[in-house]
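User: I've been trying to design a sequence by hand for this structure and keep getting stuck. Would you show me what you'd pick, starting by listing the structure so we're on the same page?

Assistant: Good idea, let's start from the same input. This is the structure you sent:
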């Protein structure tokens, strides 16, 4: 990199480059082309294919400004093979004059653009053009096209980048022999090639980013990500945390009181967590397990270990409904063992809240609730473990708050994060590389898998009959309202309408309603009535998506299933199939279905394994959905592709470990090159 990393450009341009995230000369070096244009050849008008970018060399026949359908500059041009119309909807008077002069003086014009064969013959709209002397030499290599923004032309950007390249050392930071062994070309050569490809470079490999130069860049990007996350991981190990290593009596008593034995997967994961909690540095572990895999008992056992060791535990859930379910379940499990459990959510009355906070600050051993748990006014007496259920539901701000809460203490608490949205392996290996991951890859025995049905909404009457049948045989059902993502108001109205219509259609049955706008105590009362069997059919929005557990509900209808995300459908479907009897999930879709909607419903119909669904979802939609707020404000990987570059992720992981261990200074320089000042953001 250049000794002086400042961009050489006029201040106004510099400011605009800053908007593109380009504030240092080294940022320019890594600002790589989106694609390339081939200006090395000249095509003829007659042979140019519609819709493909081509370069032409023409003379001007006619220049006119027309006013219909709107003001535009229309230019007739020709080469030896035919004629073509150029249209410019935005143009300057000087442009008109320049083209008229070209016509009069028979100058040649080089055009770059796409030909369209329309009603009025061959046309090019807004081609790029410049005047050239006849026989002017052609560039020998492909022309890079960069991502840019208003006010920064390709030409200006190219100039800045070439200057930055020329002045940069671009030194190799990695072991050259190691690179060669793994088919990685050197860094300097790679960026130079990508910015100004030599004439003989295979065009396809460049455009499709399979060229070895691209491979090296993708590797470097992944390496920066790994270094940043692993460094955060190792940094945490230098912090102290309470050592929670009691005899294990409390956990054993809880296990003895359960009506079931742990699955092998649960035992393994409980063991992993238990080892972490006994360490003198804070655990940061992600527990992944498909819906129904039994994460709650694992969390409860971890809580037992912390409580027995004299620490407090905070157990946080993203919604009141879920928090309350946890509260009831954990009270039932732990209060008989003498554990003091407190309940804290935003909806409590002031007095009740004050009392809970008071207990958190003194005697409570386990505090359960929503993110009210981490508000400023809550001061824990001796917080040792924080459990976060459905962690991906919390925003970055809340997660940072939680971390800060811990870091205020000299010894931050251990953290256990749980998620039922399976993170595909490649994502876990990349974006989550700062966490330890445990996986519950086994469902408790005796579950009958949920059968999934796809039904067109034309057959609604059959669905209604099915619900009657289920209720007649003593079962309960969920009816999930169509999702209206654009408007919360419409979503509420839809829920109310659906409830009204179903109450009509299902006369004689007890139909309840739960949606996001209900007050917390109303929500809780409805859920309790449903759990107690006092409601037959529960009409619900996606508020029931996470964690709700009513084993007697064995039928779920999801209306307008085509509007939901795959992981959302999988989560919803996981609300049934929790009892002994066979459960059914009916996905009602509206005709006609688009091709992608059809493909997505097929995936959910054919798969019951959340990991496989997530993998296919990643394939369909890219990582944004999964990574979500974790990276908000920070661009996802710019060059590497989690699907096609798995081998590079693995390689980058190995190299990151090696650099951090053997050559921390090189690790530092690699991070500076790639992340600069953005690194802090990546850790949220
Ligand atoms: P999730 O992983 O989706 O949070 P839960 O913890 O809610 O799953 O567990 C789902 C259901 O399975 C609960 O009713 C729970 O009590 C039960 N369960 C958990 N572990 C086992 C097990 N080993 N054997 C039988 N039932 C279990
Ligand atoms: Mg759960």
């Amino acid at each position: 990199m250049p000794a002086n990393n400042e961009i050489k450009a006029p201040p106004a341009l510099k400011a605009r480059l800053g908007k593109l995230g380009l504030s240092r000369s080294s940022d320019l070096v890594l600002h790589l082309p989106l694609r390339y244009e081939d200006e090395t050849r000249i095509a003829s008008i007659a042979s140019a294919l519609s819709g493909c970018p081509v370069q032409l060399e023409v003379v001007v026949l006619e220049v006119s400004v027309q006013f219909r359908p709107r003001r535009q500059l229309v230019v007739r041009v020709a080469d030896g093979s035919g004629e073509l119309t150029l249209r410019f909807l935005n143009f300057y008077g000087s442009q008109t004059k320049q083209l008229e002069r070209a016509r009069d003086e028979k100058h040649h014009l080089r055009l770059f653009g796409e030909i369209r064969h329309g009603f009025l013959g061959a046309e090019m709209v807004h081609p790029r053009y410049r005047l050239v002397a006849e026989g002017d030499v052609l560039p020998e290599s492909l022309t890079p096209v960069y991502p840019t923004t208003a006010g920064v032309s390709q030409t200006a950007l190219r100039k800045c980048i070439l200057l930055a390249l020329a002045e940069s050392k671009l030194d190799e930071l990695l072991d050259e022999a190691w690179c060669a062994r793994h088919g990685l070309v050197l860094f300097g050569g790679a960026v130079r090639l990508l910015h100004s490809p030599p004439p003989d470079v295979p065009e396809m490999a460049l455009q499709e980013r399979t060229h070895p130069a691209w491979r090296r860049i993708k590797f470097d990007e992944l390496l920066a990500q790994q270094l940043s996350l692993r460094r955060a991981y190792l940094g945490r190990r230098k912090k102290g945390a309470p050592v929670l290593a009691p005899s294990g009596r409390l956990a054993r008593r809880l296990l003895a009181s359960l009506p079931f034995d742990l699955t092998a997967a649960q035992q393994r994961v409980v063991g992993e967590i238990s080892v972490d909690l006994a360490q003198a540095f804070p655990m940061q572990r992600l527990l992944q397990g498909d819906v129904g895999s039994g994460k709650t008992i694992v969390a409860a056992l971890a809580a037992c270990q912390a409580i027995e060791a004299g620490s407090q535990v905070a157990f946080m859930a993203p919604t009141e409904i879920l928090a309350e379910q946890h509260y009831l379940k954990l009270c039932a499990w732990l209060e008989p063992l003498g554990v003091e459990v407190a309940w804290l959510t935003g909806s409590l009355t002031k007095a009740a809240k004050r009392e809970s906070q008071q207990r958190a600050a003194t005697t409570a051993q386990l505090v359960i609730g929503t993110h009210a748990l981490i508000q400023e006014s809550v001061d824990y007496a001796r917080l040792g473990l924080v459990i976060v259920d459905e962690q991906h539901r919390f925003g970055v701000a809340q997660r940072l708050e939680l971390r800060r809460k811990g870091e205020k203490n000299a010894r931050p608490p251990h953290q256990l994060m749980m998620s039922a949205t399976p993170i595909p392996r490649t994502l876990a290996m990349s974006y989550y590389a700062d966490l330890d991951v445990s996986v519950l890859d086994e469902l408790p025995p005796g579950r009958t898998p949920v059968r999934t049905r796809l039904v067109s909404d034309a057959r609604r009457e059959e669905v209604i009959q099915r619900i009657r049948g289920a209720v007649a045989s003593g079962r309960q059902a969920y009816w999930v309202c169509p999702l209206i993502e654009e408007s919360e108001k419409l979503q509420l109205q839809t829920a109310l309408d659906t409830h009204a219509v179903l109450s009509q259609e299902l006369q004689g049955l007890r139909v309840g309603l739960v949606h996001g706008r209900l007050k917390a105590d109303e929500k809780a009362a409805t859920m309790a009535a449903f759990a107690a069997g006092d409601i037959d059919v529960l009409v619900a929005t996606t508020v029931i998506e996470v964690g709700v557990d009513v084993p007697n509900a064995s039928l779920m209808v999801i209306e307008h299933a085509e509007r939901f995300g795959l992981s959302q459908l999988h989560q919803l479907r996981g609300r049934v199939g929790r009892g002994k009897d066979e459960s059914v999930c009916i996905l009602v879709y509206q005709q006609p279905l688009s091709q992608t909607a059809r493909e997505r419903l097929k995936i959910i119909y054919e798969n019951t394994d959340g990991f496989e669904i997530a993998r296919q979802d990643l394939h369909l939609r890219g990582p944004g959905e999964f990574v979500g707020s974790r990276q908000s404000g920070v661009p996802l990987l710019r060059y590497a592709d989690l699907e096609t570059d798995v081998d590079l992720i693995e390689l980058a992981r190995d190299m990151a470990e090696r650099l951090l261990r053997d050559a921390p200074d090189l690790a530092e320089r690699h991070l500076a090159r790639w992340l600069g000042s953005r690194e802090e953001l990546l850790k949220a």
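That's my pick for every position. To get oriented when you compare it with your attempt: Confidence is low (pLDDT under 50) at residues 628-635, 680-684. Residues 120 and 556 are 57 Å apart (CA to CA).
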